[in-house]
Amino acid sequence: DELASEPRVRQLLTPSDGAANHVLHLQKGEVEAGSAEAAALASGRGLDRALEAQKKAWATEFRGAIDPFVYKKGEEGEAEDWPLIQNVTLAGPWHVLRSGACLVDLPGVRDANVVRNKVAQRRLTACSGIWVVAPIMRAVDDRTAKELLGEQFKRRLLMDGLMDNVSFVCTQTDELEVSDIWKDHHKEAATKPGRAERMRELHERMGRAAAAQVKLEHEEIDKAESVRALERAAKAAKKEAREAKKQAQEAVKAWEQKVAAGGPAVTLRAVADADGRVSVRVGADECAALRAEEERTKNEYYDANDLHQKKRKEHATWKRHVHDKEKVQHEAECTSLKAQLRPLCAVLRNEFASRRLQSDFRAGLEELLRAPDEEEQGASSSATPAAVAAPAIRPEDYQMRVHCVSATDFLKVARIKTQSDGKSATFESEEETGIPELRVAVHETTAQRRERAARDALRETAYLVDEIEVHLGSAGGLSATASAQCQAGFDAQLAELRSRCEASCSDLAWALRREVDVGLVPKFNQGVERGQRQALATVESWGSGDKRSKGDRAGGGLAWATYLATTQRDGSYSSPKVGDIDWNAELAEPVEQSIMVGWEQTMNAKTNELLRACRDKLQADAKEATVRLRAALAQQELPAEAVAKAAQTAAKSLELAVGRQMEGLQDYTTTRQRDINRGLQPQILERMKAAYAAARDAPGGKGRFERMQEKMKGGAEVGMKDMFKELTDKMLADIFEFIEALKERVAAVCEAAYKLLNDIFSACWTREDAAAESADTREDVRRARDEAIGGLAPLRQALHKRMVESGIEPMELD
Fold this sequence. Notes:
The chain is mostly helical. The chain is built from 20 helices and 7 strands.
């Protein structure tokens, strides 16, 4: 209620007109479309000083405008907007986006915030590629890649067919210690000719410079200590002189007072010297001796002080003219050598990190694909060793892509950050930071789709021109009988093509059902068996004394407070102490472990393989149909050239149309199978909700934790009765329903092909009597057609040239 009364909250959460949410549009900067400034900004090159300054000003203003929605406000304790923001979409003239990429920055899939975690999981299903980003220090020091995203998430990637699209991005590569990297990885430096020798030379020179600097500092310490010793001696001499002066003054004063009081002027006093000799001093002679001692100690102090001041000045002169200069020289040499070593060490560590991450990630995959042992299968398992053999990673030489980057150094080298932020720490060029290479990886990914789309658009345009020429070149004027005979011949060949295409659709559906029966149904049965056998043990483990810890589920046990918090959240909770908890995923785990490999092989690899085979068969049948149609129509009263042109155009257009539509069906199958394989956990949640509620509502007081566990076990026994069998049966039903839907979609592709075939060939026998009322009119139409065909010639030649340049070979009919 308090939040609802906040004006800012109401403003942000009130939907905009015609939208499901409140939408804010922020924009900075404007240029005229198609202008030189727009082209320069889009390309990222050719910016003059004025446009560069304008771009930076726009960027600064834009960052300031979006900060409250993506970061935080300046004042401490001020109400923040960003927790209420669902998503932020940024668009601008950034180099990395030039090729059409869309980068989605997601929270971690194990984020402590449940909402952000679910957002990440949902968004990932729509991504064509996944980057896992972590500092390189963590990537090297921890087994990060092997534990990448958790086993459950890796299973999801495998079943979704996305495992090949995972890349690792190591950041902060500019942060390093040269000596540590050389000590740890000097042997690996020899993998490139001359690198180890160069690094060793620089390291040894840096060591000598550092040793000279240490020697210089030791010499300075010795000299400073010598000066301090002279200073202490001068202070001691000064103290002794002061004491002698004081004694002499006291003796003279005492003698004068005694004489003034009428005492004897002459006195005897035995005085023992330092050697133990005793002498007798009389009257004023004693005062004279003390004064002489005072003079001696004063002269000794003067001598000691003069020596101290002399040595102090000599030391200061040496320090200023020798020490400081040599120190600057040594430091400059060390800095220069370190600057030469740092990028070499960074590259060396990058190579090590890449190999380590690839090795650990592959080890994680092999562990994920490992066949279950006898204990995991259970004594009652009907699986044979051949049935559970671990599949090999495909391809055998697969390695995860790793990119090592330094964003900070890139921003400084590229002068995006101001000079007040200091110089780059390690790298001197943009290429060394790894950011340009990461851009290239983005462009290569998008280039595959862009190139295919561009080639298809080029072919489609060329074939459209061919179709127009077919229609323009129609002879017309056929008699009704001849036109009907042509249509009848076409219909006969089309019926033959329809029969073949229907057979291809049926064959595809039959082959898919067979693959499911052979490759998936046994895995589902095995999963049901394992899931049912392990389910209650899994439920009981949640309250066991063998506690889990962050990153290690171990026995699965939870403290009662964490147990309660998990029941309150329907089995899904991100605990600050033990990390991510998902009981529904743990219950689904035995089933998913059993089916994941068969699922990937059947629903991803085999389905796509069968679709490609079906596409090839449909294209071959369509091409053969055009050949038969050409032969059949050649027997009619039609110009051979027009029939040949129509056949050639139809063959090319059908190949392109069928190919593109069948590729679209691959996207459909990917999306549909992901929807099906994600249905298991939500259905388990529905079955377990009653058990979670019963445990949550267990009576309080002493022994509550035990009562919670009893309620959970009792509710689970009811909820999970035949659960896995029913849920997997539903998944199989969904799969067979998907196969039928796929068959219908392929049939729709065939129907579109039939229509295209008819549109092209029918132009050869279409009658024009109704359109042309007189011979003169028909002559005008023919003249206009000839002019139009002549006008199309330059366009067709240009298209043909581009197709040759793009490597598109022209189709030739037999």
